[in-house]
Amino acid sequence: MKDSEIFIIGANGQLGLALQKQYPGSVALDHQQLDITDQKAVNDFDWSHTKVIINAAAFTNVDGAESADGRKAAWRVNATAVGQLAKICIKHDIALVYISTDYIFDGQTAPHTEDEPLSPLSAYGASKAAGDIAACIVPKHYIIRTSWVVGEGKNFVRTMLNLAERGISPTVVADQVGRLTFANELARAIDYLLSQQADYGIYNVTNNGPLASWADIARKIFEFADYTNLTVTDTTTAEYFAGKDGIAPRPLNSDMSLDKLHSTGFSSRDWLDELKEYIIEE
Ligand code: NDP
Q1: Are 131 and 137 contacting, i.e. CB atoms less than 8 angstroms apart?
Q2: Whose CA is nearest to atom 24 of ligand 1?
Q3: Residue 18: φ, ψ to 5°
Q4: What spacing in Å lies between the alpha carbon of 207 and ligand 1's midpoint?
């Protein structure tokens, strides 16, 4: 498949930017250039040269989605617009790559496998679960379920580095566990599935490596960035958000099984290795 047959939506987000590096010759449109909630713009687009749509666009403000307006916005982008993209893909025989999340689960079962029943806790999680369902009606679909994404943009690693630069020793949640997923790894796995023509369906994609809490990860960030004078103190999710309004409930266990992905022959990189490289590049 030629890069020019790949159409990236939401091209300026963390994943969108990594995909642009993966596919330099692709058609890559940001929010300004194509708003996926604009049904007419989506319908009127000339799709005749497109073989794959990778939808990296999403309403990702998890807590923002808890407000009345945020909930509507999240559903418009993460669910209704995905339904429209699904129709386009069916009409033009295009494959759809949709990015889903650990937030479609309540975090009570682990590791999460691709056939776990949906059980979102939050408005964001519900809107993404609806997008998941909409995407799977496309005959040629890859639903990529990921967690804790780190790329170019606002993310946990940057937040911790920013605190460290200001000499702050943070208190960080220690009862949510998972693995980081670097946007480059996500783009690499998507490319692998597409280029190997893996069976269509749902695939979990995160980095590999030890399961860790946010506090564990913060400690690794401080270690790798050489802030040995600073400390990270553990707290619980409940304590961290106590007294704050509009906070979305979060799944406590985001351990995603990578067995299905690895059965395709793909080998996932360890998040600790990618974290070291990311910090050197920052
Ligand atoms: P980002 O928030 O970095 O990027 C999302 C992009 O979507 C932004 O560039 C945004 O543009 C764009 N966008 C929002 N609304 C629209 C719209 N109506 N039309 C077109 N573009 C729009 O997200 P990530 O790259 O981190 O996430 C990629 C995917 O991974 C998403 O599907 C997300 O749900 C999923 N995911 C993310 C996780 C994470 O930790 N970040 C964890 C698990 C899954 P603008 O900023 O201009 O509005």
Answers
A1: no
A2: 14
A3: -65, -35
A4: 19
Q: Nearest CA to 128 among 147, 111, 154? A: 147
Give dist(CA 112, CA 253) in Å, integer.
9
The conformation of residue 205, written as its DSSP 8-state character, comes to -
- C-alpha triplet 124, 268, 213: angle, nearest 5°: 50
- At residue 211, the pLDDT reads 98
Per-residue pLDDT, 77: 98
Residue 140 near residue 95 (C-beta atoms within 8 A) = yes
- The letter for the amino acid at 274 is E
3-state DSSP assignment of residue 12: coil
Residue for token pair 């704050």 = 244
Q: Judge contact between 144 and 188, C-beta under 8 A.
A: no
Q: Which residue in 178, 104, 166, 167 sits closest to 134, CA to CA?
A: 104
- Whole-number Å distance between alpha carbons of 79 and 60: 12
81 Cα nearest atom in ligand 1: 18
143-160 pLDDT per residue, tens = 999 999 999 999 999 999
The per-residue pLDDT for 21 is 98
Q: What is the distance between the alpha carbons of residues 122 and 111, in angstroms, rounded to a whole number?
A: 20
At residue 1, the pLDDT reads 87
Distance (Å) from CA 226 to ligand 1 centroid: 31
pLDDT-flagged residues of the chain (< 50) = none
* Cα dihedral value 63, 69, 71, 73, nearest 10: -100
The confidence score (pLDDT) of residue 233 equals 98
Residue 178 CA to chain centroid, in angstroms? 13
pLDDT at 282: 85
The answer to whether 151 and 14 have CB atoms below 8 angstroms apart is yes
pTM of the entire predicted model = 0.98
DSSP assignment of 3-42 equals GGGEEEESTTSHHHHHHHHH-TTSEEE-TTT--TT-HHHH
